[in-house]
Amino acid sequence: MTPAWAKVLIPIVLIAIGAVLVWAFSLAALEGGDRLALIALERVPESGVSNPITSVLLNFRAYDTLLEVAVLLTALLGIWSLGPAAPAFQPASPILGGMIAWVVPLLILSTGYMLWAGGHAPGGAFQAGALLGAAGVTLALGGDASAGLPGETRLRFLSVLGVLVFTAVGVILMALGYGFLTYPEGYAKWLIIFIETAATLSIGVTLAAAYLGGEPRDERTSRSAT
Amino acid sequence: MMIDLLALAVAFPLLGAVVVTATPSHARGLGLASAVLTTLTSLVLSLGVWRDGSVRSDFGGWGAPLGIGLQADGLSVAMLVMSNLVALAVSVYAGSYFSATARRHFWPLWLLLWSALNGLFLATDLFNLYVTLELLGLSAAALGALSGTRAAVAANLRYLLVGLLGSMTYLMGVALLYSRYGMLDIGLLAEVIEPGLVAWTAMALMFSGLFLKAALFPMHFWLPPAHANAPAPVSAALSALVVKAAFYLVLRLWLDLFDPVLNASVANVLGLLGAGAVIWGSWRALRAERLKLLAAYSTVAQMGYLFIAFPLLVATPPGLARDNLLAAVVLLAMTHGFAKAGFFLAAGLVQKTAGHDRINELGGAAQALPAATFAIGLAGVALIGLPPSGTFLAKWIMIEQAMIQGLWWWVVVIMLGTLLAAAYIFRVLGHAFNREPTPYRFVNDARTEIPALLLAFISAFVLGLIAQPLWTLLDQGVLG
């Protein structure tokens, strides 16, 4: 039971902290100096892509994004370490099944578009990966126990593909003398698309596998079960 | 061909994690290979800094403020060497500790944790630090839950949530600084930051987030169950390295970023919380029923000493004395890293052999596992701070400096903590070397034992500290 004084004191303290935060943030916004965004916008043309968000995520601060893709992988590995997935949903009715048969290919098609659009318009690996993941979730809701994902060996490979390609590109560029994740002039666009394609696959697979919520089925056991 | 050791110190464990995830059947061999490669990279990098000074590498060739880079200076390299050596030992130990199924889960998460640690020690960008904190917290909580028991999963879910709250609070502070100054690089920010509400609020937010992650008293509540229930190699890494990373970050921001906006009252608050941690953590360690819980509470206490250093640092004017004090703090953090990891690894062996880790029933463990008991004893020497351990030297410098500055109350706390540490270490060793049931009372015959205790106490604690009168006395005729 919360004591009576705590019921009064805690909200007061929280409101006081909130007030200080609002005051500090409004001061910060008023006094704000030169924005990093201005410098970034100025140099977007040098980044190999014309969408400023992509140029920040995949070029200026690519190392941050590499670690963020690793965070996603960690989350998935954490989920896998906790045990097997919950049983699958029951198979969808013919109407829902028919709709899923329409929606899933459309989602995969939009994934490809979103990935390509990221270079010059809003889009990119995270958005494309989210659409791909949604395709998997839709399949799982319709009763597909594996959410359309491949067997364990290929699933493991796909889930690490993003970090693998991202890091490998970085290390190879370093070995060639350009510096870690430093794209040589003229190649930035294609290297970014290469990394983003791998990241999209990994993000999509990770989101769908996370939705299933458990260790991948071992291929041998699932084969013997069918 | 160009070798960027800074990038490789993060990239090798990351690539290792990728490889062991993709080929789980070879997890142990490939994992160990990545561990050796990562440690070698970090050692070579550290050797370079030792010889030629700090190195910096800007990824993408943009440079601050637009891009991100990594930087290795003396402080980061000291933590890097300690962490990588401890992590290598933990890796070797884990190679034979885990079952074949647990191994598949351990290695990828462990290598991801390792890359987060290396990334954190080398980072120079406030937002990049946030990403490494996220990677570190997530992998640490997942590893802690690997023992699979209900208690472990519950404790580590709480650890995850507390860690998220900590990172979010830190991030809010970063957002505040970014909206005021429009940059994230620590070095550039330090040039423009000025005292005021914005800087103070940002500091309060970032520090409180990190205190939560460093388990600074009274925000330590999540640590003992999470560390005590994790598998032994994971407990070692969590206690020796992960909380230490949060402390490192407080020290780094204190020295490199918030220096112009600090004042003594902030340092005193940190010192007070540290003192609370020393007393409360040591007391709970003394009362703990299980060996791993004792070690976890001992971590709470040992983190406290590190924070007591802040008021001393502020009170000491720049110069040799302050440099010594700073070195002492880093030495204390490094020594605790080695000692606590060794303690947990040995405790894990005892637990595996005896089937439990209840301290009162550890009788005979010394006969069965002499090396493990010896390791606990040796680690105990460092945890208490007996000479010639690093803790001894560090506490010595801290006490000396506190005396010089007239801040005697910190000396009392350090001594009290040391006494309690001696008590909880000898309690373990006493049980470990004893087949007989232990007596129920501490003092059995007051008239004979109290004098003996007093004499021992004076010899161990009083004489060394209050030796000054002896010099005055000997002035009477002996010393010219």
TrEMBL record, chain A:
Annotated keywords: Cell membrane, Membrane, Transmembrane, Transmembrane helix
Domain annotation Na+/H+ antiporter MnhB subunit-related protein: ranges: 99-208
One Gene Ontology cellular component: plasma membrane
Keyword Transmembrane helix: yes
Pfam families the record matches: MnhB (PF04039)
Protein's membrane topology: Multi-pass membrane protein
TM stretches of this protein: 12-30, 65-83, 95-118, 124-143, 155-181, 187-213
Subcellular location: Cell membrane
Family membership noted in the UniProt record: Belongs to the CPA3 antiporters (TC 2.A.63) subunit B family.
Protein name, as recorded: Sodium:proton antiporter
Organism: Thiocapsa imhoffii
